[in-house]
Automatic annotation (TrEMBL):
Start and end residues of each stretch annotated as Disordered: 1-31
Residue ranges of domain HTH cro/C1-type in the record: 33-84
Organism of this sequence: Streptomyces kunmingensis
Protein name: Helix-turn-helix transcriptional regulator
Gene3D superfamilies (UniProt xref): 3.30.450.180, lambda repressor-like DNA-binding domains
Alphabetical list of Pfam families matching this protein: HTH_31, MLTR_LBD
Length: 283
């Protein structure tokens, strides 16, 4: 992954540069500001610590901040809950999670659950966003990428990614932010490390997004796909953690009721059910 020796400092600098002074009650400063976002001294004042202490924190010379200080810095920069959790983890104050011993194995009950969504796209992802299992509808939607099961590689290396994902920039950004969050949660996951290292080498777009040092979980996302013969399909995905397999996530994408996307998914689900029934009776 080519990790920095000071991930905490890099994360603080990235978020400090994204924090607009006006958002935290400070004057913008007009043309007198030479850097984007907040100055170190301003973060220190807002967090209630000395400017020297905060500078040492960013520079990696202070490696054992208290939970109170980390919380104050996170609040000073108005970090999201995901970003604050990531900040605590980088400061060594939140235990890193360990992936399931066999992250490739999907529990039989979860496999059965996938088929309980006949008019939705449902699939299980690993921490590195490998598709471990999918239902029939998801199989149709992912058919253009047959042979590439990792969704991050699909987005940044597959020739058809920008054709299929109509709003590719938003999907790519959300995926990279979530992958960075997973990298902090599962520092022992070799799949994540190898994936990040590979894409940093070959994809300028991935490198730019990864360099933003931003984190956000995939709780609820909106995706638009365009597929030959099916047209435009709009889905809202909800993400669920699989608690008996830490790191695995179940994603379920549903269309707006009564929409053309709902009609398409209903026909796909019905077709899959009919095929399964014919197979069951030996037809």
């Amino acid at each position: 992954m080519q990790p920095s020796q000071n991930e905490l400092g890099a994360f603080l600098r990235a978020n400090r540069s994204r924090t607009e002074p006006a958002h935290v009650g400070l004057p913008a400063g007009g043309g007198t500001r030479r850097v984007r976002g907040l100055r170190r001294e301003e973060v220190a004042v807002l967090a209630g610590v000395s400017a020297d202490y905060y500078a040492r924190l960013e520079q990696g010379r202070e490696r054992h901040p208290s939970p109170q200080v980390v919380d104050a810095v996170g609040r000073a920069m108005r970090l999201t809950p995901d970003a604050r959790t990531h900040l605590f983890r980088l400061a060594g104050l939140h235990p890193a999670r360990t992936s399931a011993a066999n992250i490739e194995t999907v529990h039989p009950s979860l496999l059965h659950m996938l088929d309980a969504f006949p008019a939705a796209a449902a699939y299980v992802l690993s921490p590195a966003f490998d598709v471990l299992a999918k239902n029939a509808v998801a199989g149709v939607l992912l058919a253009p990428f047959e042979g590439t099961r990792n969704m991050v590689r699909v987005l940044f290396r597959h020739a058809r990614a920008k054709e299929v994902f109509v709003e590719w920039p938003a999907v790519a950004r959300a995926t990279v932010y979530a992958l960075r969050l997973h990298a902090g949660r599962f520092p022992d996951d070799r799949g994540i490390r190898d994936l990040v290292s590979e894409l940093l080498d070959v994809s300028p777009e991935f490198r730019r997004l990864w360099g933003e040092n931003a984190v956000e979980d995939l709780v609820r996302t909106y995706t638009v796909c365009a597929l030959p013969g099916l047209g435009r399909i709009e889905l809202t995905y909800q993400t669920f953690d699989v608690h008996d397999a830490p790191g695995q996530q179940l994603l379920v994408g549903v269309p707006q009721p009564g929409s053309s996307s709902a009609d398409v998914l209903a026909s796909l689900g019905a077709g899959a059910g009919a095929m399964a029934e014919r197979g069951a009776v030996g037809v």
